[in-house]
């Protein structure tokens, strides 16, 4: 198993924790060298906080652990392509490399809708690798939303979206 897959599997485990909480199953791991310094999963519904995306929570944890907002030599592994907010946090924290699983056709800002992570007008750009364990990451999401639709049809709906 290569490095990207190794750490993406950790991010997938985080995504599964989110799903257990009926959160959208997205997980994130931040690595410095060969050490995991932060891991997180979506908690938007749990915390009723629009900022509680896996990437934002992981960036916050990594900054606390390193006692610095500059995460310059770190790599992020995330199961879904970062949205505009998360891409902004990656640029602002100066993460060196981002590896994601599934592309996000509705909000992807690492190359699908736009590429904020490599925008030349910003003072920082991150290396981007997409499609790592893409099918597995995508299946987590499609399975989650299918179950959610089925529950809604059965009258058990919850406001996740």
From TrEMBL:
Does the UniProt entry include the keyword Coiled coil?
no
List the catalytic activities from the record.
adenosine(34) in tRNA + H2O + H(+) = inosine(34) in tRNA + NH4(+)
Query: For this chain's UniProt record, which GO biological process terms are given?
Result: tRNA wobble adenosine to inosine editing
Which keywords describe this protein according to UniProt? Hydrolase, Metal-binding, tRNA processing, Zinc
SUPFAM superfamilies reported for this sequence:
Cytidine deaminase-like (SSF53927)
Give the note describing cofactor binding and stoichiometry: Binds 1 zinc ion per subunit.
Q: Please list the cofactors this protein needs.
A: Zn(2+)
- The residue ranges of the CMP/dCMP-type deaminase domain are 2-120
Provide the protein name: tRNA-specific adenosine deaminase
């Amino acid at each position: 198993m290569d490095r990207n897959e190794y750490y993406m599997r950790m991010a997938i485990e985080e995504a599964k924790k989110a799903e257990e909480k009926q959160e959208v199953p997205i997980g994130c791991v931040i690595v410095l060298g060969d050490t995991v310094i932060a891991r997180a999963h979506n908690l938007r519904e749990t915390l009723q906080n629009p900022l509680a995306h896996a990437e934002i929570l992981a960036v916050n944890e990594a900054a606390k652990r390193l006692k610095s907002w500059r995460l310059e030599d770190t790599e992020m592994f995330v199961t879904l392509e970062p949205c505009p907010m998360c891409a902004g946090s990656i640029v602002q924290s100066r993460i060196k490399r981002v590896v994601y699983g599934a592309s996000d056709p509705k909000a992807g800002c690492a190359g699908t809708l736009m590429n904020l992570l490599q925008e030349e007008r910003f003072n920082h750009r991150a290396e981007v690798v997409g499609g790592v364990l893409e099918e597995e990451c995508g299946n987590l999401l499609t399975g989650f939303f299918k179950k959610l639709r089925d529950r809604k049809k059965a009258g058990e709906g919850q406001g996740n979206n």
